[in-house]
């Protein structure tokens, strides 16, 4: 089971469950997460979704083996990706989304936080957006959401540098709301999630819609721009070299 689903006190916990791959998103996990969000949105007994990861990572981002296969296999390249399906589900998710970052968050494991209403991070967690080190463009509308969330200069560093950001730095940027001791992370995140879940669901939805509706068109426009840049850069010289280096390290 690549995505665990648990319900308690009107909070649905979604746990990314590919710990051996550091919860990297492959097509199956993108699809499963999108379906789980859509299901939670429609379920009258679910008020809040809490997203976390199994094992020592939150998510290592996009599965680079699948990225490489997409470059070399024309059939895969023409199939599209459930990444888009998940981003659509996140963009239109009408209820509070709480993320508990239990370990490293790389790529989509960091940019997904732009869709969260509350972010809790383990003091041992770190984030990285490795787009420039992979020779590609940002994704998940992060080029729009991150400047909105953490300011232009913080976003520029996060998206351009491919450097790690630790939990305290993430909190000072405004990317994380609270930093917790590792063994207290889920309990604290759940406590706040249950406080939200105790409120009337129609009211929660009204608040979130009022906050998010004005920027949905901007999210869609940013996604379109990013996708165009990503398609242009995928398989290019810098990207091919980065993926070849990744493969060589895996084989050594």
From TrEMBL:
Compartments, record wording: Peroxisome
Record carries keyword ATP-binding: no
Keywords of this entry: Isomerase, Peroxisome
Organism domain of life: Bacteria
GO MF, one example: delta(3)-delta(2)-enoyl-CoA isomerase activity
Keyword Lipid biosynthesis found: no
Official protein name in the record: Enoyl-CoA hydratase
